[in-house]
Structure prediction request, 475 residues.
Amino acid sequence: MVRLETWLGTHNVSRASLHSPIPARLRQQLWPQERKLERNRLLMKLKNYRGLMALLVVLALVAAACGSSDSDGDSDGSTNGGPPAVCASDAFGCVEVASGDPIKIGSLLVTTGPNSSLGLDSQYGIEMALDYADGTFDDTNITIQGHDVVLVPEDDGCSAEGGTAGANKLAADTQIVAVIGTSCSSAALGTADKILGDKGVTLISPSNTSPALTAEATRNPFYFRTAHNDTLQGAAVAEFAYNFEGVKTAATIHDGSPYAEGLANAFAASFEALGGTITSQDAIQVGDTDFSGVLASIQAESPELLYFPIFVGEGSLLVQQAKTTLGDSVVLTGSDGLWSDDFYAAAGDGVFLSGPDVSAFAGDAALYKDIFLPRYAEKYGSEPLSAFHAHAWDAANIVLGAIEKVAVDSGGTLYIPRSGLRDAIAATSGYTGITGTLSCNGNGDCQPSATIAVFEIVGGKQAADPVFSVVKSLE
Prediction:
């Protein structure tokens, strides 16, 4: 290639002379060289352009491949580190369980005082469920995605005050994923359910039965239960009284708690619907010891049956005083809040108690009779203390299943979305537990039907077989 400057020098032509008209002979020699130079410049630019485009294509393909890989890894919302997207979208965020840390589940049950048998019975059911969740009893709790599951217990005191105190302690621990409780409806309604719900902590009870807890107007959206609704138990006791015992008049006593008042009212409504007459509906106070005045007032109305769905402390005294004041002609009937050896001993003979038919649970009967009950006796040294051990087992397993469903591992940390966990529990459908086949409805009742039985106290013990049993279902 001949460069322009070289050609000019060879032919004794100055650059300035190029601005003058070029002789035809020179123009014929110069222009082919210029055209060749320009063509070479264009070819070089084209090669550079093609190289740049090739590089861009390669980079685009690499980026697409990386994006596809990330998308595949994040299909469940996880990331290679840091909180998954579900935590940002959850109104209450996620519980973050660091590598090596346990998953903490709380319990809020009455474990001290006169009603402790009710709560300890449920506590044992939870402990057994956490142990057996891997299919064997070995005194070792289940692990979920490499994290041990531990139970953090608090006492609900079977009171609003106890429920408030216990719920505040659990709510203050940001690592608590969910809480199984309370034992008593008074410890939950407007107290523990609100305190925990305000923090996005799901509360699922094995033994709350007050209708108000799952009523549309009063239910907290983070509240559920595996126990029956007392609209069912009230109707069952009414049928026992009217159809089985053949009584046409009855009186009720409650202690002002949501459980006792709700159940007494449910019984009264069903009894009257059957054709019976409620002669009086009276109230006592928790802590009362002398019931002579209210019993005298009841006696004056001559009811054939007295229904008192209260708790052990007051019930043990009331049943003895009622026998003296009312005599043997009045049928004395209580409910599952009185399922305790202390009450059985005080009642002696001829008193009836209603509750879930533990002799005929509608769920996994073989598991209950052949595995659960023998292990309960071996581990805790007695037969079940009260009525709701199996309901607690079912509640614990529902919580464990929901955690496994929604938990996301990201970089070794487990993230459990709070609202997501609630929604997973709410979606429970067709779960076969010990107590039956559980499906949670829109109000948090997970026991759509229940077999309610009435047992007689004989010789200071509750008979193993009921005198009356009926299946009741929520509408």
Q: What stands out?
A: The first strand starts at residue 94 and ends at 97.
